[in-house]
């Protein structure tokens, strides 16, 4: 029942000041009684229940200054985080009535609010720590992939060095050809020089890419260490939380980053600027590593194609040179045989001419001349008894001897030229045979010394 003042009598006897003082005291008491009636226990319990509901529904309420709120805020300031202090005063609500004093369970409510704030903060930190560890897992996985590409680069470099050694031995091997006819520069020598320049250029490109890969591996390693350090720093407040039952703590996940994490960094929040910087730098490093891996694969493929093309071109040129040498060697063999046959025929002819010349000259000793060959034989003497009976036998013998001498000299000269030509053909044939053997040895060397183990398996197909 509300308190109402009793109306005074219409007739006043006492003085006015006396009556005014009394009425003022009555109104003051009435006002105080009404204030006390507004803060009865039922209203306080309703305020407390409303505050608890607001605490469980919202996490970041604002503090309303009511009654002696400044004193309570100063009391709990060192226990709670500034961004969540609205939940530290459950007796202060958004209702229109004013609670003059905190409830008896104010200490328990402050402790419960502190635990709730700490729990929510730890959960947010655990989400961020899980995301950082997942990013560290992605960086580690990218390191493994880039390390595999580095191994392929090193194997490719070993293959290029082996090819350069083969090229050097091929050039040195071709210098052992006969110096008389086979040391002239040909297309195979030019192709060997082109192959050397191509291999040198590929080697320089591979070494440059390998240096970039090593630098990127160092960058990824540094990002991984920074991520793990940041995750360890975030995990300092997670000792009291369970390590199971939450997918946020998975360190090997390869999924996309969580979309529910805080995007705006806060210096004293779960997502600090340091975490943002580490995540962004690691993401950039992973993207750069992926691009570098794609470039490495393309570069290795192009290098293999160019290396195979140069190797195959030189081998084909050497094979063609060997085929040409074999063809020339066969022609030389045939021609040298024909030359030897001509020499033997000319030798027989020369022997016949020499024999005829010797017979035409007659014996050296006059006592060896037969009676039928003498110019003063009896039948000739009898024939010369008449005048004008001269026989041309002596002139014919002299003329025949001169012709035979000329034929003998020319035949000897032709035989000498045939013998010289035959010797030249034989020497050239020996040179061609030696050159064929040298080029064949170079081909065998190039095919035997190709180090297939230094080349990736999936790139060895179609080498020859």
Automatic annotation (TrEMBL):
InterPro entries: Tektin-like (IPR048256), TEKTL1 (IPR038949). Its main location: cytoplasm. It is found in: Cytoplasm. The keyword Transit peptide does not apply. GO terms for cellular component: cilium; cytoplasm. The keyword Nucleus does not apply. Residues 143-216 form a coiled coil. It holds the Pfam family Tektin. Keywords: Coiled coil, Cytoplasm. This is Tektin like 1.
């Amino acid at each position: 029942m509300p308190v109402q003042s009793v109306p005074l009598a219409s007739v006043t006897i006492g003085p006015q000041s006396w009556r005014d003082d009394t009425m003022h005291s009555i109104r003051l008491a009435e006002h105080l009684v009404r204030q006390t009636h507004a803060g009865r226990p039922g209203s306080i319990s309703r305020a407390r229940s409303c505050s608890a509901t607001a605490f469980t529904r919202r996490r970041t309420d604002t503090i309303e200054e009511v009654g002696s709120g400044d004193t309570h805020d100063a009391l709990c300031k060192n226990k709670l985080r500034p961004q969540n202090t609205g939940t530290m005063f459950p007796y202060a609500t958004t209702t229109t009535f004013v609670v003059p004093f905190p409830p008896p369970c104010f200490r328990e409510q402050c402790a419960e609010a502190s635990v709730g704030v700490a729990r929510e903060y730890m959960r947010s930190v655990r989400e961020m720590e899980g995301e950082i560890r997942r990013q560290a897992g992605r960086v580690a996985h990218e390191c493994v992939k880039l390390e595999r590409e580095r191994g392929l680069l090193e194997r490719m470099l070993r293959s290029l060095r082996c090819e350069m050694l083969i090229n050097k031995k091929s050039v040195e091997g071709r210098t052992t050809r006969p110096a008389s006819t086979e040391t002239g520069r040909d297309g195979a020598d030019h192709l060997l020089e082109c192959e050397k320049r191509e291999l040198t250029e590929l080697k320089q490109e591979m070494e440059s890419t390998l240096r970039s890969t090593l630098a990127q591996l160092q960058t990824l390693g540094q990002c991984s260490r920074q991520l793990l350090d940041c995750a360890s720093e975030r995990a300092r407040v997670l000792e009291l939380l369970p390590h199971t039952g939450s997918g946020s703590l998975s360190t090997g996940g390869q999924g996309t980053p969580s979309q529910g994490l805080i995007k705006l960094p806060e210096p004293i929040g779960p997502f600090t600027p340091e975490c943002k910087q580490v995540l962004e730098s690691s993401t950039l490093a992973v993207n750069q590593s992926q691009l570098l891996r794609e470039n490495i694969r393309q570069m290795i493929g192009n290098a293999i194609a160019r290396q195979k093309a140069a190797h195959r071109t030189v081998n084909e040129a050497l094979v063609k040179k060997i085929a040409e040498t074999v063809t020339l060697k066969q022609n030389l063999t045939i021609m040298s045989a024909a030359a030897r046959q001509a020499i033997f025929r000319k030798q027989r002819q020369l022997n016949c001419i020499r024999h005829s010349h010797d017979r035409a000259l007659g014996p050296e000793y006059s006592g060896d001349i037969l009676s039928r060959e003498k110019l003063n034989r009896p039948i000739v003497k009898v024939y010369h008894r008449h005048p004008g009976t001269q026989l041309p036998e002596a002139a014919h013998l002299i003329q025949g001897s001169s012709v035979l001498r000329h034929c003998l000299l020319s035949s000897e000269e032709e035989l000498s030229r045939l013998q010289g030509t035959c010797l030249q053909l034989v020497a050239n044939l020996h040179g061609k045979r030696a050159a064929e053997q040298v080029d064949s040895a170079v081909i065998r060397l190039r095919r035997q010394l190709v180090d297939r183990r230094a080349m990736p398996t999936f790139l060895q197909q179609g080498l020859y």
